[in-house]
Amino acid sequence: MGKNVTYKILQDYLCSGELTPGKEIGIKIGQTLTQDATGTMAYLEFEAMNISRVKTELSVSYVDHNTIQEGFENADDHKYLETVAAKYGIYFSRPGNGICHQVHLERFASPGKTLLGSDSHTPTCGGLGMLAIGAGGLDVAVAMAGFPFYLKAPEVIKVELKGRLKEWVSAKDVILKILSIISTKGNVGKVLEYSGEGLNTLSVPERATIANMGAEAGVTSSVFPCDEVSRSFLKAQDRDSQWRELKADTGAAYSQVITIDLSNLVPMVALPHSPGNVVPLSEVEGKRVDQVAIGSCTNSSLKDLTLVGKILKGKKVNPRVSLILSPGSRQVFSMISKNGILADIIDAGARIMESTCGFCIGNGQAPGSNAVSVRTNNRNFEGRCGTKTAEVYLVSPAIAALAALEGKFIDPLKDGSMPYPEVSEPDEFLIDDSMILPPSDKPDEVEVCRGPNIGKPPLNEPLPDKFEGEAAIKVGDMITTDHIMPAGRRLKYRSNIKKYSEFVFEGLDSEFSRRALKLKSSGLSSFIIAGESYGQGSSREHAAICPMYLGVKAVIAKSFERIHSANLINFGILPLTFVEKRDYENIDTADSLQIKDILKDLDSGRDLTLVNKTKGCSLRLRVALSPRQKEIVKAGGLLNYVKKQK
Ligand code: MIC
Ligand code: SF4
């Protein structure tokens, strides 16, 4: 049987296991990336492994999430990241150089290689034929130390693209359409692999937009072949030597085929508060808009912003609207400033931000109370923008620009007479890597700087045989890591676990942290009870580390998302699922719970029995862990486990 692109790359990097969907495999990681918000912890964990130099082909550390520098914490984190990179063989992309995924795509992505990144949107580089996977910081640290990354061999879904996009319809609408088909849950362990004649009409940055938002579906990755379009992009980035052809064999196996006729698509919008809540734009036509934010790793390529500039040229932003623009990278920023596009955008009345994540992660530009914010990024979870009562709608850059001008949603296909500006990809991008610092060639002389906010990575204790404690919180379906561990203005505590832990579940139950600590000080464990798809969204391992610090021993859910479940295991917290989903109803917050014989049942593969002492009932819980994962949890987490292996 012929091979698909995903399995060709997996085959090249396979270290252990059998390449059969659902089986655990270990793969070697060619490249890694980190960003500042997850990176400090990842490098502290790397240092704890006592390895003198990274063992990957390439590792890059980006500073893009938090550059506000309100107080010393942020700047200290940046200094730590810069010096630790210099010492251990890592390239350092300085603050201001751009968003990790955009810069990596431009300057480092290499077809046919594996990339592991401590950010859930790492699959963006799948737009250039990489198998790029998001993971927790500790998994990335372990990969930098040269150990394999473990995952279940994925089920590969073929997305067959036909036709060509109409004017005003973009790559963002393609992925929004796909999200409307496969939704944001139930896709764990799958890869979306793109093919078909429609591919020729999509540039690499457009493919990257599509691969980027595959993360919202919860898939492991999204992969595009490497073809002539990829060759032109690499050539324009002066990196044509990286090109290699990569395509699926005829008759390659796929578990499912989704066919999308690009010519039939219309502009789409994701309504509040989920990227899966997608409808055609025409359904919100005329709705008032208060804020428009253009940028993020999803949509701030040169083509995206050029299109925005051409739509805004010679016009003024509606006086009721605040228009924010954040270019994805310094390369894009510099090019639009040199070709006059930036001036058109400024003249129209836009507010220009740094090349960072900024508004996308609620780090600045929070909308007003009950405001309608139209954004080009990938997530619109409740409160993520910084304002709980705001409504965030996700659209393409062109639709966002029209909304900024009119102060309301406009569907340009409605009367069909609106002129659509043509934008083509450049033959040459502006190359200036001076803000990417290579590692030191005298690592012994580099002193790693640690500010007072930078702690040590906390360790868990080996798994006990019995948990005795309380349901410290009960939450519903699709709880995101933004609910568990808010980012935004709390971001600056990412290197200080004790402080950051005060904000666990802040928006859902501001007493959670105090309650869990109280249970811990009385020698009791905390349990989190959850519905479907627990841990959606980001890769932030703090959503496991901070609950661990507060004494959470297990999360009991109807189902889990991949990265979060791996993070729980990495920090010695048991992810358990209800054998009977209706048992979710048999536990309430503050119920007194007990699980005995954990070690014996774990080893024998039996379900665990939970006794709800408050309700006087017992129920069964499944432990869906591989033998390796069981050993990690028993050791109290991956760091303890790796230390034992050495
Ligand atoms: C996100 O988009 O949610 C983030 C912020 O980039 C996270 C990483 C983090 O929390 O630091 C992600 O996507 O993994
Ligand atoms: Fe940054 Fe937003 Fe992209 Fe996350 S999704 S990497 S916060 S731009």
Describe this protein's structure:
This protein has 646 residues and is of the alpha/beta class. A seven-stranded mixed beta barrel has the order 21-22-23-24-27-26-25, surrounded by four helices. Helix 2 (36-48) packs across helix 3, helix 10 (302-312) packs across helix 12 (341-348) and helix 10 (302-312) packs parallel to helix 13 (397-406). It starts with a helix and ends with a helix. The site of alpha-methylisocitric acid (MIC) has 13 residues, from helix 2. Alpha-methylisocitric acid binds at residues 37-38, 65, 119-121, 134, 361, 487, 537-540.
Describe how the helices and strands are arranged.
Blueprint: H1 5-13, E1 14-16, E2 24-27, E3 31-35, H2 36-48, E4 58-62, H3 72-88, E5 91-93, H4 100-107, E6 114-117, E7 131-134, H5 137-144, E8 149-152, E9 155-162, H6 171-182, E10 190-195, H7 204-212, H8 214-217, E11 221-223, H9 228-236, E12 256-261, E13 268-270, E14 278-280, E15 291-295, H10 302-312, E16 322-326, H11 330-338, H12 341-348, E17 351-352, E18 372-375, E19 391-394, H13 397-406, E20 436-437, E21 467-474, H14 481-484, H15 497-500, H16 512-521, E22 525-530, H17 542-549, E23 552-557, H18 562-570, E24 574-578, E25 592-595, H19 598-604, E26 608-612, E27 617-622, H20 627-635, H21 638-645
Helix pairs in contact: 2-3, 2-5, 6-7, 10-12, 10-13
The structure holds alpha-methylisocitric acid (MIC) and iron/sulfur cluster (SF4).
The site of alpha-methylisocitric acid has 13 residues, from helix 2.
Short description:
By secondary structure, the protein is an alpha/beta fold. Helices cover 29% and strands 19% of the residues.
